[in-house]
Amino acid sequence: MRSQAERAAEKSSKITGVRGVGTQLWIDTNSLQDTMALYAHMRESGVLVKLNGARGVMTKPALILRDDQVGPLTQALAKF
Q: Domains in the chain, ordered, with CATH?
């Protein structure tokens, strides 16, 4: 999931990185404004995330997903 999220996040100048293992991912941004926009965008896209300080969001809860179920997360990141 992380490698798919990293590829999707590369399309956004507002995302500075993706960290984590398994389904616990931290998606870092440039600023608090970008963090809040990403948080709202991901939630509107149906992805459960929570704020991770002022510089990003993290996925929640840690879910067990198959590769074919990662689509909503990667699609939302690619459009941000």
A: 2-78 (3.90.1150.10)
